[in-house]
Amino acid sequence: MLILGIDTSCDDTSVALLGDGKEILSNVVSSQVDLHAVFGGVVPEIASRKHLELIDIIAKEALREGKADYRDLDAISVTAGPGLIGSVLIGLCFAKGLACSLQKPLIGVNHIEAHAMSIFLERDVDFPFIALVVSGGHTIILRVDEPCRYSVLGTTKDDAAGEAFDKIAKYLAIGYPGGRIIEEYSRKGKKDYVMFPRPMMDDNTCDFSFSGLKTAFINYVKNHGINGENMADILASFQEAIIDVLFLKTLRAAKGNGIKRLVAGGGVASNGRLREVFLERGAEEGLTVMFSSPEFCTDNGAMVALLGRYYLEKGIISPLDVKGFSRMNLR
User: Fold this and answer.
1) Taking Cα atoms as reference points, which of 178, 179, 198 lies closest to residue 268?
2) Which residue of 41, 70, 103, 128 is 20 to 30 Å from 161, comparing CA positions?
3) Domain spanning 3-116+299-313: which CATH class is it, in words?
4) How deeply is 26 buried, as exposed, middle or buried, from its count of CB atoms within 10 A (0-12, 13-18, 19+)?
5) Domain spanning 123-291: which CATH class is it, in words?
6) What is the pLDDT of residues 132-147, one digit of tens each?
7) Cβ atoms within 10 A of the Cβ of 241, count?
8) Alpha carbon distance 70, 79 (integer Å)
9) Contact present, 165 and 185 (Cβ < 8 Å)
């Protein structure tokens, strides 16, 4: 069985070919980081235009690397959302065209669910488990009961964690993507230099809010200043506050559901300090914590192809008029 997976949810154009089982025959990703770095964040119009320019080229490259032809495909899986709607529609329309012309099944999948299930590209995990999907656009906790069946336990009320990193990096004019740059600074900093607030920790929910933390950071810098001597310490303290909230909220979800398996995915889950905290503190709480490899934490077509396979095995396919969506249905 050959599944083509297509993801254009944000600024990466990715197409992958998944063979029998979970064999990744190809996983081609074209990044737009250099295009958006000058703006300090993703510009939706630029992103969608670049997807339009590249999608056919990347798909052909994925097939070439996988030594396959369009006619060999058994199904086309594609991100239908959530994401930047202009970007989402490029991949979705391309996939519809392929499915129609090849007379192959089309499976429109949820990008968040694909991140949660990306761990299965590398290992099996017993169900149910708690999944934290944390990236530039999303911070969501899911309970995953089986393939294709999940529920949302918590989400951000404003900024996603990665978005907060990017906005602070842009405010300080230290570069993009902000998460990687702040992580690099933080390696040399004192994590308790500033005691930034841990938002929404007393609300007894699994929801997040990072906008106030971002404001607290900006106010601190305005009042105390930031320079080459204290920048690493201030950024390390900011990063620690975000990671602390992410762990404590995910821990709350795990305890509240009586589940001891945690899976973390999404671009921010590549953060080395986040992994360290989750593994160390998770072990103290008797939890098994698992991460996707960094290449599968960021947006990729392989996780979309894998999720499409699970839906195909259940006989669930999408109509050719399946719609793209920018936001997730939260409850």
Assistant:
1) 179
2) 128
3) alpha beta
4) buried
5) alpha beta
6) 999 988 999 999 999 9
7) 22
8) 19
9) no
